[in-house]
């Protein structure tokens, strides 16, 4: 049994991945997590792309991979400092502190606040929702905008790249997950509302993962989802509460005007790094604001600060599987360094 | 009495006469450029009270520099001491030679080199007083020169953040100017050392130098110094028409012609030369966070020398800050537009051909127009709609299917004719409607509709409408403990002078913070339609700067009254950014059965009935 003690901040897929490897190697592991239940953003999604696995099940099996850890739920870490002897002092909300020999930061990302793009009407028109909201609706946790269910031939619009690849909202990066989320949610909506017609407005379709391209094809072939290359510029509400959308078809180069009963905004993933990580622990950022490891190729989990490791989507948009693997990789890196 | 002469007056005389010749040529050319209406107008006012008023202003601005004093007393003193001191030297010198020679007309160089021709204690009526006054005036100028030196080293000491960068004719002229008066002091001092005489200043310098009087005399140092004086003075005069110092005569001429009623269009060539490149316009320039080269001072300079490019004309947000600061009162916005008009095709904006102004065929007398940017800020427009309903105002929305343009983007891009066509088209549409009041949420539209259209209807910005509604009690608001700061949109504040209405409404609802960058001194948000060449990154830098200056630790919300400002500021603000309409809606006290007072004369149509909540 190692006497070394490791702290993991965040118990999303990445944090759990790290904790599983560390705990199975006999280290003493403390996991600090803001929410009550482990799983991170998995707890906010209903079914995962590309195979519609319930997100809950994935969270449960990830948690089951870890062995003995000291789990601190509901524990938002508001400060960490590093001693001259290389140890980390972690301050918990109740003021108590814990000391660790190494730290894995796996704090994840933040969902883009769609009300920042006022022209899309989020927070103003009840029938404009985000992909994150839709997950809750699909899971049955939140009702769909009321009148919707009574409508026969529903028109549903899906808007890609909301808060990503958009200089105006200060985010140039691509959030990677939202294209396939748009495809996945279009299919789910079609299943849920068989009479509906779904139109998705995209910039490019980025189907990078295994099975994604197939899903995109399925959406078009089996579910008649119409993909239009175009950017939505503004949304207004008609007297009947329908959404009037203005967009530009960037392939044909002509303006589009259309009306929808529901508009789903594919919100992007933004950096959500705490101040202490940058100011007190010296973590650098990439332009998009995410944390930067020592390099992108062989040492992306390491930082200039000895004993501090980065894991998961705090470094940039990742899928669940990637985040989990990255958490395990960070832990492996840590073990190698410990045994050196 | 024959006029004395010495060869050293030649450099001075050359400089002086070449300057005079050029000035006459320039004034003639300006005059010839005037329209015949302007010429007639000017001639008719020569012998009138306008001329007197012009003289008063010339003294106030050309000599005393009151407007610069307002910006910074120390800077004002610098300009005043240079102008006033020099002016006194000329006037007192004139009387000194008059008293001495008894002639009204003397050689131009006589007053200037008086002490070199008549050194020592020369006695004539009032000679001691003249010498004293000449020394006092010299001291005044020298104090200004000292400050000018200091300003070059440390602009902030004179209340300026940035000092204008100068080009070579300016530098040459400036160097001559810096030396003119110190050299004059030395010349007079040296002469006084050898021959005696001089008042408290030159006499003292003479006394200090007197131990070496023999040496000075033997080597004819006084003569050399007078040569030096003549060269620097002549050099300065020679450079004056080519440098920034042209502003001295140009400003006086400008003041005169303004009072004589010459149209602004005709005055533009004079305005270009009346800029002193004082740099006062730089500090308030919206573009400062992205660079110190497109500011009004540089634009006017380039336009004067004729090498302004279309790009330069378009590198400006038209925020109006420079114009409101310029002590000479130059119409900098119009000057910039003139440059854009010339190169308009480069950054053209497409006119909107088919505006669909669906104005109340069915009797809506209040027309609400959110503006084209309003379509991007649905929170503002939907708040306005609800407020109108709550106030019991029946209204129709102009251009609900949008596509209408007030014409300002065309106008600001230099396409004056296309803008006029747009204005005419919209005017017709509005005239055909039964509208009596036009309320708009966009300051850009408000400026356009209220200043460039001749509409037979009342045009209001929504801040004014809110003030009226809240003042009349038609909208009742509560006071919360929210702390907010208000950003004055350029077009609403400097553009239309609407500063008080939003503050009046806001202070009934929240604690309104004040800021050093408010009202006239408001900073442009960077989103302006006035500059299409500005990149998003630059706009965000400008917006961040404005937000930094406005928001402090207490601020909870940044309020503004322009959809464009709201969008631009919201992209970078750490606190929530809201429009005044949204804040009003949040503070609205809904009275379920409010009786709307009957107003006979009100322009606003009310539902004369109970308003349900
Ligand atoms: C709309 C949407 C749908 C998606 N759907 C899918 C999908 O179907 N399939 C898929 O593979 N991926 C999907 N993703 C991506 C997926 O959510 C991420 O890959 C995954 O959540 C990343 O895991 P993570 O552990 O890096 O970060 P997170 O899931 O964000 O977990 C980080 C956790 O750390 C906690 N934390 C942060 N800071 C602190 C602190 N200071 N103290 C304590 N705790 C802290 C947070 O509360 C959070 O719970 C989707 C993303 C979006 C936006
Ligand atoms: S993944 Fe697709 S929707 Fe998301 S930011 Fe990238 S291109 Fe846009
Ligand atoms: S434009 Fe006005 S403020 Fe600017 S430098 Fe010229 S005179 Fe000074
Ligand atoms: S109008 Fe504004 S942006 Fe343009 S030069 Fe003047 S201060 Fe600068």
TrEMBL record, chain A:
Q: What organism does the record attribute this protein to?
A: Breznakibacter xylanolyticus
| Keywords associated with the record | Oxidoreductase
Question: InterPro entries of this UniProt entry?
Answer: FAD/NAD-bd_sf, Metab_Enz_Cyan_OpOx_G3PDH
Its domain of life? Bacteria
Keyword presence, Oxidoreductase: yes
Protein name as catalogued:
Heterodisulfide reductase subunit A
List GO molecular-function terms, semicolon-separated: oxidoreductase activity
Q: Is Oxidoreductase there in the keyword field?
A: yes
Automatic annotation (TrEMBL), chain B:
Q: Name one Pfam family in it.
A: CCG
- The Cysteine-rich domain extends over 366-449, 485-569
Is-annotated flag, keyword Transmembrane?
Answer: yes
Q: Which UniProt keywords apply?
A: 4Fe-4S, Iron, Iron-sulfur, Membrane, Metal-binding, Oxidoreductase, Transmembrane, Transmembrane helix
GO molecular function terms listed in the Swiss-Prot or TrEMBL record: 4 iron, 4 sulfur cluster binding; metal ion binding; oxidoreductase activity
Which ranges does the record mark as transmembrane? 12-32, 128-150, 171-187, 193-212, 224-242
Q: Write down any Gene Ontology CC term.
A: plasma membrane
Does the keyword section mention Iron-sulfur?
A: yes
Query: Could you tell me what this protein is called?
Result: Fe-S oxidoreductase
């Amino acid at each position: 049994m190692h006497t070394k003690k490791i702290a993991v901040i965040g118990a999303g897929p990445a944090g759990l991945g790290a904790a599983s490897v560390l705990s199975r190697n006999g280290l003493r592991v403390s996991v600090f997590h803001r929410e009550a239940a482990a799983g991170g953003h998995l707890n906010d999604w209903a079914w995962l792309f590309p195979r519609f696995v319930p997100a809950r099940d994935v969270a449960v099996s990830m948690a089951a991979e870890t062995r003995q850890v000291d789990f601190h739920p509901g524990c938002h870490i508001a400060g960490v400092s590093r001693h001259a002897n290389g140890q980390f002092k972690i301050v918990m909300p109740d003021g108590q502190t814990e000391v660790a020999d190494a730290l894995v930061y796996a704090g994840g990302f933040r969902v883009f606040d769609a009300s920042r793009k006022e022209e899309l009407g989020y927070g103003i028109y009840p029938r404009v929702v985000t992909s994150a909201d839709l997950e809750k609706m699909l899971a049955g946790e939140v009702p769909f905008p009321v009148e919707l269910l009574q409508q026969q031939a529903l028109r549903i619009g899906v808007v890609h790249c909301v808060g990503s690849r958009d200089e105006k909202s200060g985010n140039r990066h691509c959030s990677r997950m939202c294209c396939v989320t748009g495809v996945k949610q279009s299919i789910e909506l079609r299943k849920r509302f068989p009479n509906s017609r779904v139109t998705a407005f995209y910039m490019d379709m980025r189907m990078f993962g295994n099975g994604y391209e197939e899903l995109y094809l399925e959406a078009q072939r089996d579910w008649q989802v119409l993909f239009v290359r175009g950017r939505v510029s503004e949304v207004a509400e008609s007297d009947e509460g329908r959404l009037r959308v203005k967009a530009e078809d960037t392939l044909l180069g002509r303006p589009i005007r259309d009306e929808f009963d529901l508009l789903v905004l594919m919100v992007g993933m933004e950096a959500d790094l705490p101040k202490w990580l940058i100011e007190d622990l010296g973590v650098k950022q990439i332009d998009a604001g995410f944390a930067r490891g020592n390099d992108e190729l062989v040492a992306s989990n390491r930082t200039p600060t000895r004993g501090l490791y980065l894991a998961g989507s705090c470094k940039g948009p990742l899928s669940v599987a990637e985040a989990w693997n990255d958490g395990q990789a960070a832990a492996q890196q840590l073990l190698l360094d410990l045994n050196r | 009495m024959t006029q004395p002469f010495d060869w050293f007056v030649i450099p001075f005389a050359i400089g002086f006469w070449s300057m005079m010749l050029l000035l006459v040529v320039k004034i003639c050319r300006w005059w010839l450029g005037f329209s015949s209406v302007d010429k007639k107008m000017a001639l008719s006012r020569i012998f009138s009270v306008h001329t007197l008023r012009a003289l008063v202003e010339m003294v106030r601005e050309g000599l005393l520099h009151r407007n610069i004093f307002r910006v910074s007393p120390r800077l004002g003193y610098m300009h005043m001491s240079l102008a006033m001191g020099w002016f006194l030297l000329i006037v007192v010198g004139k009387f000194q030679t008059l008293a001495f020679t008894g002639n009204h007309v003397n050689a131009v160089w006589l007053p200037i080199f008086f002490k070199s021709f008549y050194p020592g204690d020369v006695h004539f009526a009032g000679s001691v007083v003249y010498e004293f006054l000449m020394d006092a005036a010299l001291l005044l100028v020298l104090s200004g020169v000292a400050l000018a030196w200091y300003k070059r080293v440390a602009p902030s000491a004179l209340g300026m953040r940035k000092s204008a960068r100068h080009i070579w004719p300016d530098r040459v002229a400036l160097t001559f100017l810096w030396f003119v008066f110190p050299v004059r002091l030395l010349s007079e001092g040296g002469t006084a050392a050898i021959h005696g005489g001089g008042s408290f200043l030159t006499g003292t310098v003479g006394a200090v130098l007197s131990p070496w009087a023999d040496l000075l005399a033997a080597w004819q140092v006084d003569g050399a110094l007078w040569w030096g004086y003549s060269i620097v003075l002549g050099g300065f005069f020679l450079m004056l028409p080519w440098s920034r110092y042209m502003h001295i005569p140009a400003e006086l001429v400008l003041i005169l012609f303004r009072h004589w009623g010459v149209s602004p269009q005709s005055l533009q060539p004079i305005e270009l030369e009346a800029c002193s490149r004082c740099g006062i316009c730089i500090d308030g320039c919206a573009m400062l966070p992205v660079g110190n080269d497109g500011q009004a001072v540089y634009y006017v300079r380039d336009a004067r020398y004729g090498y302004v490019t279309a790009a330069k004309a378009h590198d400006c947000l038209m925020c109006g800050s420079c114009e409101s600061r310029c002590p000479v009162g130059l119409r900098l916005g119009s000057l910039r537009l003139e440059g854009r008009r010339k190169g308009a095709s480069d950054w053209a904006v497409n006119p909107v051909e088919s505006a669909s102004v669906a104005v109340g065929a069915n009797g809506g007398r209040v027309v609400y127009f959110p503006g084209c940017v309003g379509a991007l800020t649905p929170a503002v427009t939907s708040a306005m709609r609800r407020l109108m309903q709550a106030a019991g105002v029946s209204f129709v929305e102009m251009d609900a299917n949008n596509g209408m343009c007030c014409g300002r983007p065309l106008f600001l891009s230099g396409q004056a004719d296309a803008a006029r066509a747009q204005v005419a088209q919209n005017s017709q549409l509005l005239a055909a409607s039964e509208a009596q009041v036009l309320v708009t949420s966009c300051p850009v539209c408000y400026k356009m509709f209220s200043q460039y259209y001749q509409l037979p209807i009342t045009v209001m910005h929504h801040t004014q409408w809110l003030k009226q509604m809240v003042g009349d009690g038609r909208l009742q608001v509560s006071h919360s403990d929210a702390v907010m700061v208000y950003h004055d949109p350029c077009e609403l504040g400097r553009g239309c002078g609407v500063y008080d209405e939003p503050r009046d409404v806001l202070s009934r609802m929240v604690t309104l913070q004040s800021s050093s960058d408010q009202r006239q001194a408001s900073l442009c948000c960077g989103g302006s339609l006035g500059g299409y060449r500005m990149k998003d990154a630059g706009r965000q830098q400008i917006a961040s700067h404005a937000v930094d200056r406005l928001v402090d630790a207490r601020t909870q919300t940044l309020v503004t009254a322009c959809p464009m400002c709201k969008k631009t500021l919201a992209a970078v603000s750490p606190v929530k950014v809201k429009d005044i309409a949204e804040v009003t809606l949040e503070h609205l006290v809904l009275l379920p059965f409010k009786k709307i007072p009957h107003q006979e004369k009100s322009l606003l149509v009310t539902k004369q009935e109970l308003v349900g909540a």
